[in-house]
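Figure 3 (text version): structure tokens given as input.
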């Protein structure tokens, strides 16, 4: 009676210890061409640069928004603003 599960995650038959191991006959994956690698690297750096520019734009918007809260345009005032002077 043979076991249902034998081997390392394969569920295959047990290997005969007297037979030398051979490499699998899987077709080799073609090496990526340098052009493909260059395109991938360029796309990565463009994506990272875009994320950086977007993050900086958001930070600048936040700083400008906080500044505008204390220095409102048009002269209107918020009650809790330190720079607000009531007549």
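Below: residues designed for each position.
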């Amino acid at each position: 009676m043979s076991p249902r599960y034998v081997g390392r995650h394969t569920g295959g038959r047990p290997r005969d210890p007297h037979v030398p191991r051979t490499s699998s006959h899987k077709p080799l994956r073609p090496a990526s061409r340098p052009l493909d690698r260059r395109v991938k690297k360029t796309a990565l750096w463009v994506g990272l640069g875009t994320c950086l520019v977007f993050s900086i734009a958001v930070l600048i918007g936040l700083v400008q928004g906080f500044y505008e809260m204390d220095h409102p345009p048009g002269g209107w005032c918020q009650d809790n603003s330190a720079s607000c002077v009531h007549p």
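The chain has a mean pLDDT of 76.
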